[in-house]
Each structure stands twice: as C-alpha cells, then as structure tokens.
Amino acid sequence: MYPTSGVKKDTQKAMRLNTIEGAFAVAAENLAAPYLGLFALALGATPSQIGMLTAFPNLLGNILQIPAGLLAERMEDKRILPAVGGYLNRLTWVVMAIVPFLFPPEQRVGILILLATFRITAANLGVPAWTALQANLVPQSIRGKYYANRNVVLNTCALLATFGANRLLRLDFPLNYQIIFAIATVLGVTATYLFTRIPFDQPPLKPRTANDSYWLATKTFWADVKNHKDFLSYARSSLIWNFGVTLASSLFAVHFVDTMGGHAGSWAIFAAVNIATQILIQRYWGRLADIFGHKNVMSFSGIGAAAIPLLWWIAPTLWFPIVVNFVNGLAWGGYNLAAFNLLLEITPDENRSLYVGVYNTLMGFATAAGPLVGGFAAEIFGLKPIFLASAALRALGLYVFYRTVSNTSGREMGVSDLVPKRKSGKSSLEA
Question: How far apart are CA 393 and CA 306, in angstroms?
Fold first, then answer.
C-alpha cells in the first residue's frame, strides 16, 4: 500500500492498524453525519437552525482545543484524550436516535443542536493529540503516499456506508435515522477501541523544572507563534477560506430538497459520487504532493473547491448535482490530503499538539460564523446569493494562501504537470 523501505516492522504494523481504525471511524461518520441536517429538516428545522447545527459545534468544539493541546503536551500517553473523546462522540448517536420519542416537537431541533455540539466538542478534544501522534507515526518522506493510500481505504468504506445510508433513508421516518445512528455507534466505538491498541511511538516527556509553570509555558509558546510566519500565514488564509466554505456548505442539502424538490435518498447517491471520485484520485494527488509539495497541490485543487458554490448556483436539473459532486471529489480529494500534511509540515515537532489546538481554535471561529451568517442571510436574501458570496470568499482565501505561505518543496508546479507524462517507460509522477 505504501513504501516500506527503511520503515521498521513495528511501525509498519502500527500504520496498518491506523488505517483499519480510520476505516471504521470514517464508515461511522459517513453513515450518519452527512444526513444530520436532513434529520433536522424532518424535525422541522429552519435554514437558520440548520446553520446553528453546524456553527455551535464548530465554535465550542474548537475553542477548547487550545487547553486540549496544552493538556496533551503534558500527558505521557497522548492516546487518552482522543480515546475518551471518541467514545463520548460515538455514544451520542444513541441519544440522537431517541430524540423524537423523548421530547415534544417544539423542543426536538434545539435538543438536537445541543447534542451535536456535545458530540463534536468531545471529538475535537482529542484532535491536537491525534495529529501529533500521526506526525510521529508516519515518516515525512512517505506521508503523501501513505495518507493517499490510507484515504483510498477510508473513502472506500465511506462509499459503502453511503450506499447503506441510501437504502436506509428510504425507510419510514424516524426509523430510518434511528437505524443509521445505531449502526454508526457500533462502528464508531469499534474504531475508538482499535485506536487504543495502536502502538504509537511517543517520545518521553521533558523533565519539568520549578519554573516550568503553566503560564510561563503559555507565554513562551505565544512568543514562538508570533515568529512563525508560515504558520500565521497559513492560519490567516484558512480563516478566510473556511468562513467561505461553511457560509454555504450546510445549505446545499437545503437547496436540493426544498428548492429543487430532491429526495434525501438522492443526496446519498450524490455523496457516493463524491466519495468514489476521491477514491480514484487519491494516489494521483499523493504522488503530486510528494513531488511538488503540498502547497502546490492545495493551490490547484483549491481552484476546483472554490468553484463548487457556482456549480450549485447554476444547477439546472435534479441530476446536475452528480456533476457537482464529481468536481467536488476531484478537488477536495487533493485539497484535504495536502492541507493535513502541510499543517504537519509547518508545525514544529515540539509543541505540535498546541500548535494544532491554536489552529483549530481559530478555524472554529470561522466555521461557526460561516453557517450562522449563511443561515440567517439565506432567510433574508435567498440561497443563491449566499452561494456567490461563498465562491468569492473561497477564491480570496486561496489567493492569500498562494501569496503568503512558503513553498517548502522548492519546486514550481504548472498546469502541464497535472497531466502525467510518459518518459522512458515511466510516468513523470512515478519518477
């Protein structure tokens, strides 16, 4: 699946288990999470409430990542926070499944928003530690290929989960969502258990002195952040980008169902096209990332991701979203792969958990403000103007990223490099 030359056997085993754990986690998430907004619609949610369903979890879940990062840096076993958060996250699906039975109609959407906020908050507590563990697990020289191949496996499982959701969503409400949430719980809990069994290589904690207080460590860290220009530039551009993305992303399903007259089951089909495309494109983007660097891959794939709202804006038929999700898969397959690896690349080994916590906290403000503004604005101006604003902000964020973040690969990438060239019987992407 990935190059193993020079990689210890124990590390190879850990990487394989890391992939298996991810497969269960992604299957659980893709079986249930993409349809939470549709579940809220069935409970009577308005566009602004759909925005809250995305905004509140993003805000609270990410604000807590700075203290989570500080805590992770002081824990000998960094698996603890991701494990605790993982179990709480996955078990919340059970409670969501019985919301229609426990609460009167006028309270159901509000309770669902609270549960979604708790779920994402619990999950995000472990993200800084999880990211640091991934950086320690996979050698930098093969990260592009490893995560590309890992994503192929994960996206295959996501595709199977999507097909399953498509069938289950056609059952009567609320039984359809209750079955989905129950299966997601089992898969997710299994993933968390497998995560606890991965033998991550964790360097020993540095001995702490009497002067190594919490506040002194925090002050020193912030001073270091201010001098880390690439990290600050990456965060600045990501704030604009993520606000633009989340401004409209939660409204695409609303547009399809309420405006275009589509069925929730068809939405699962479109999601399957997206995932299948990502499966096919992952190794391609991974090879490009290892050759030309993650910034170049993000720059080119980001153009496609920025165009997605425009495609929804012009969507002429109920089946045009197939085209939209094909482009979505091509673009986001490369962007997400490169964005994750670039974050690992520009954050130092020391205090990486804390850097990730800071980054995700900043993104939390953007991804909370985006759906809130988008949801309320949609009720005033309609959906399509929000799609245009989203495309413009995505383009601005991508431009700021391209102009300010360093190209650590030292190689330039042109449009012609997107097309594999055959030289001496070997593709340029394989050279």
Answer: 8
